[in-house]
Specification:
With 388 residues, the protein is an alpha/beta fold. The protein folds into 2 domains: 192 residues, 3-Layer(aba) Sandwich (Rossmann fold); 137 residues, Rossmann fold, CATH 3.40.50.2300. The protein contains 12 helices and 15 strands. A 7-stranded mixed β-sheet has the order 7-6-8-9-10-14-15, with helices on both faces. A 5-stranded parallel β-sheet has the order 2-1-3-4-5, with helices on both faces. Helix 2 runs parallel beside helix 11. The longest helix is centred in the N-terminal third of the chain and has 26 residues. The radius of gyration is 27 Å and the shape is globular. The N terminus is likely disordered.
Length: 388
């Protein structure tokens, strides 16, 4: 027969086991804490003339999204709006993201013209806004909620002129600009200003055309012929244009027999391939000022290129890289905040210094402009080769 003391011990043990079981049972029933989901608006010109390039940006963004959501305690959910390659649609998309979806952050708009026109909305809605591809200098000075993750022309042009002059040795140059585009005008202004600091360089002809964003490239034979007939003959042509203008100009110039090297701010490898496919050899020798190249030796860039190839089966271009970089930079800001409201995200973006991005060490200056090192390259055999 069990003694009183043994029975007491046994009863206590049974009770403890029952309680433990109940605790485990209740614990098992507790809901699993889901990561906080942060809605982020995206405005890209997925249709229209800029559609193919926008898809490259989106691919880079999607890759960064997967990586961030796999490792962080929060989850980003994109709400994507089509800017349709025109300013009015991009502005309408911004308003929908702000008013209907109430997002605390937006990646976009895409072009400098769209971004400039959106500044009153940005200031009114007070949403942390990060453009992955706008590059006009001075945009960030107009809104404390606006940031550019790609280099502005004010940061690419001085180094680009120095290195291109070193390699081409030009004394006489021409300029060609799309006069109705914010990026193109900013690029041309900085090029003209920078060339003016070199006493041995003369702009012998300044040409322009008018191509509103979203319209098809037209005939610029007259402008190219005037450059070709300039006296003295230019040693180089500085082109400031939107993507379709860059492609169209190089093709038209080659077909006209113009064999003067072009220097084109931010021309992409996708554009180079398109030019050489349409008019073999037309892009050879073109020099660009860029924020990133596929053959970058930066460790983060090499990893990005490998992961992009694995996911999409092709090498990324600079538009994909700029999309990827924008999301990783925003992800870093989100990782630093305790509440995911627009003001907290804005403050976290403003504080980013020496972030290890695919561009190399990345910071924002006091105006929300990207600070990183530009890359100067020349097209050889349908690829970019870095110049220094």
């Amino acid at each position: 027969m069990m003694s009183r003391s043994n029975y007491s011990i046994g009863r206590n043990t049974v009770t403890a086991l029952i309680l433990a079981g109940l605790i485990l049972n209740f614990s098992a029933c507790d809901p699993v804490m889901e990561p906080t989901e942060i809605p982020v608006g995206v405005i890209l010109p997925l249709s229209g003339t800029l559609g193919p390039l926008a898809q490259s940006v989106m691919n880079g963004m999607d890759l960064a999204l997967e990586e961030i959501n796999a490792r962080e305690s929060f989850r980003i959910r994109f709400i994507v709006e089509d800017g349709k390659s025109n300013v009015d649609s991009a502005l309408a998309a911004y308003s929908r993201l702000a008013d209907q979806h109430k997002v605390p952050a937006i990646i976009g708009p895409a072009s400098s013209t769209e971004t400039e026109r959106a500044i009153p909305l940005i200031n009114n809605k007070k949403i942390a806004t990060l453009s992955a591809t706008a590059a006009r200098s001075g945009l960030g000075t107009q809104s404390e909620f606006l940031f550019l993750s790609s280099l502005s022309v004010g940061r690419t042009v001085p180094e680009g002129v120095r290195i291109s002059k070193k390699h081409l040795g030009y004394k006489s140059v021409a300029t060609l600009v799309n006069k109705v585009d914010a990026f193109s005008n900013s690029s041309n202004d900085f090029i003209t200003q920078e060339l003016g600091t070199h006493s041995d360089v003369t702009i012998v002809h300044a040409a322009s055309y008018r191509l509103p964003q979203g319209e098809s490239f037209g005939d610029i034979t007259a402008q190219l012929t005037a450059i070709q007939n300039a006296v003295p003959t230019p040693d180089a042509i500085f082109l400031s244009a939107l993507p379709e203008g860059r492609i169209g100009t190089l093709i038209a110039a080659h077909r006209l027999g113009l064999r003067i090297p072009f220097i084109v701010n931010f021309i992409s490898i996708e554009a180079i391939h398109a030019v050489n496919e349409a008019e073999p050899g037309a892009a050879e020798g073109t020099i660009t000022f860029q924020v990133w190249l596929p053959n970058s030796v930066v460790a983060e860039s090499r990893e990005f290129v490998d992961n992009y190839r694995s996911k999409f089966g092709e090498e990324p271009g600079d538009f994909a890289a700029r999309g990827y970089a924008a999301v990783t930079i925003l992800g870093e800001a989100l990782n630093r905040v305790s509440t995911y409201d627009a003001t907290s995200i804005r403050d976290a973006l403003a504080d980013i210094r020496d972030f290890p991005s695919i561009f190399g060490p990345f910071s924002f200056d006091e105006n929300g402009d990207a600070v990183t090192s530009p890359v100067i390259a020349r097209v050889q055999n349908n690829k970019f080769e870095v110049l220094d």
